[in-house]
Amino acid sequence: MFNLFKDRFPVTHSEKEGVIDNSLDMLKHTIRGLIKEKFSSKLKIYVLDSGSCNGCELELQLLFSPLYELSFLGLEVVYDIIEADILLITGLMTENMYVELEMIYGKLKEPKRVITVGDCPVFTAPFKETFALKNNAEIFYSSSYHIVGCPPEPIAILEGLKEYLKKDEYSHQKS
């Protein structure tokens, strides 16, 4: 499909492309080292959308594209909370999802690690004034770490993950 439009919409490249690639490679190398140090070989993440516009989910999906290749760094999305090392929450805390979220959080293995992504879970999103919302996710999950943005760019998610892994108080326990 791209070949049909390549003459009409020429592809441009940033002059700083090499710098961006180099910083991304350094960031990926750092994250890979932190995952190996703290989780043996794989960091398993369970993603829960508690009621979002799907902007954060699209950015998360981009992280597993050939550009970022997070699966090669040792990150794996799992679909069973019992296997997960980290619960990653996106979206507003809706009344309907709160019971489900409590059940999932209860099944998360110790130490319970929670990362919230985007502005919605901490109520800085535009939809915060509605009857359908429970409350700020940070109130319920004091162990959480927050990655800011609406939606956060993939690089911001990677930076947030790196900072979380650096500050993780369970750094010498292998999951």
Structural overview:
It contains 6 helices and 5 strands. With 175 residues, it is an alpha/beta fold. The protein has one domain: Rossmann fold (3-Layer(aba) Sandwich). The chain has a 5-stranded parallel β-sheet with strand order 2-1-3-4-5, covered by helices on one side. Helix 2 (17-39) runs parallel beside helix 6. The longest helix is centred in the N-terminal third of the chain and has 23 residues, at 17-39. The protein starts with a helix and ends in an 8-residue tail after the last helix. Keywords: 4Fe-4S, Iron, Iron-sulfur, Lyase, Metal-binding. Belongs to the complex I 20 kDa subunit family. Residues 53-163 form the NADH:ubiquinone oxidoreductase-like 20kDa subunit domain.
Mean pLDDT: 79
Which CATH class is shown?
Answer: Alpha Beta
What is the tally of helical segments? 6
Q: Give the overall shape, derived from the CA principal axes.
A: globular
Return the CATH topology.
Rossmann fold
What radius of gyration results from the CA coordinates? 18 Å
How do the SSEs run, as a string of H and E?
Answer: HHEHEEHEHEH
Structural class: alpha/beta
Provide the β-strand percentage band: 5-15%
Strand order of the largest sheet: 2-1-3-4-5
CATH architecture: 3-Layer(aba) Sandwich
Q: Spans of 5+ residues with little confidence (pLDDT < 50)?
A: 11-19, 171-175
